[in-house]
Amino acid sequence: MSGAQVQIAPPEQTFANWLAAWGAAQTLVTVPGTEAQARQALVDTVACMLGGRTEPQARAAIKALEESGEAGGSVPVGGGPGLTLGGAALINGIRAHALDFDDCETAGSTHPSAAILGAILAISSSTPLSLGAVLEAWAVGYETIVRLGQALGYGHYRIGWHATATLGTIGAAAASARALGLDAEGMRGAMTLATSSSAGLKLQFGSDAKALHAGQAAQAGLRAALLARAGMTAAADIFEAPNGFFDVYGTTASRRGGKVMAEVELGAATRDFPVLRKAWPSCGYTHRAIEAAELLAAELRPEAGRIAGVRVLMPEPYARVAGFPGARTAAEARFSTAYCVSATLVKGRLGLRDFWPEALSRPDVQDLTSRVVLEHLPASDELEDMSPKAPDTVEVQLSDGRKGRRTIAEVRGGPTRPLTAREIVDKFRDCGGTAEMAEAMLLGERDLLLRDIGIHRETRPA
After folding, report:
1. 10 Å Cβ neighbour count for 392?
2. Beta bridge partners of residue 201, listed in sequence order
3. Which parts of the chain register pLDDT below 50?
4. By the 8 A CB rule, do 146 and 107 touch?
5. End-to-end Cα distance, the chain
6. What pTM was computed for the model?
7. How far is CA 205 from the centre of its chain?
8. Burial degree of 458 (CB within 10 A; 0-12, 13-18, 19+)
9. Which candidate, 271, 163, 257, places its Cα nearest to that of 214?
């Protein structure tokens, strides 16, 4: 990756032409720090894939693939049966997203790396991809998703689209095209073909289908790149044309992609919209409330039976996503601010085990969850994703009269409070990997073949 600024295409070019001309160039031009972000994304996402390998969504998907005759030579991250290339991408994406522990970004409101790396790592299991090639492909996929998000705006996510499924599919297509060595025409074709598989609704949150969306984005994006390589074409102006992608998926506040691309510095997405890496395995909209609850638990040291009441104040768009009142399943619990706050107050911290069946059925946590009041604060149409201008507040009232209140504006793991490299390695080990494997991806030479790191071999369950 190079650090010089570049302008590839004139403003009148289509969105796909802009991205493809930059993303397929022999030397990929990016801002300083992009490779470090790509390396951390790789370690963080592989961790989530390892941790998600035994989750019910992943097990069900493998069973379905086996029953449909999807055996092949590609092994998903964390091991398992050999599958077709598309089947491995599907499983990689599902595993990455099953714990809701994978990274996110705020321009498009997506979980970018689950889709992007779900596809690239499927390719790497059967094709000798170097670490450098994987890092560059990730950068192309991330740039694509961020610039799509800038064009559509938060309104795309807010009206009900699961952007990981819609934008992630196109990002995975661009990334796959880079990994497969397609030229600019091929990459443009992959992106435009991918729009025909761009779908998924937020109403699936709290169910197994949410993780499926990330897997389908990886699978469909990779398939689009393979179709483009085979010579299939699609409408070149599918993003910009009347009734095209931006019209159908956008809102009145959305912008035309070509206009956005004319204003941005190509290769600067990681600087403009840094990756958010998760400190807790739950919906990102629960995280500020979880941290507030951690601070209150340390301050008040409450016993569950002595907590008289809990009140959580969240902006309405965030609360609507993370507002499950109870937690009958792990999928629901990850989208229940009430459960996440209650478990944190009772135990002092929240971790992977708090979404296991025995933890979900704890009477003290269930009782407190039922008594949490989640108040939806009005939000303007101009609200952006995870905006520090719209913080979360947790209030706790104890039966002995003591009270506590904490407000968190900047999310841990976000741009102003990023996880450290050591924290990412620790997360990798918590999810079932080894420090040596993580450090190979963080520090290894760019010409190291990714399959030599061993991520496709069978690993112990998390």
Report:
1. 27
2. 161
3. 6-7, 9-11, 462
4. yes
5. 34
6. 0.96
7. 14
8. exposed
9. 163
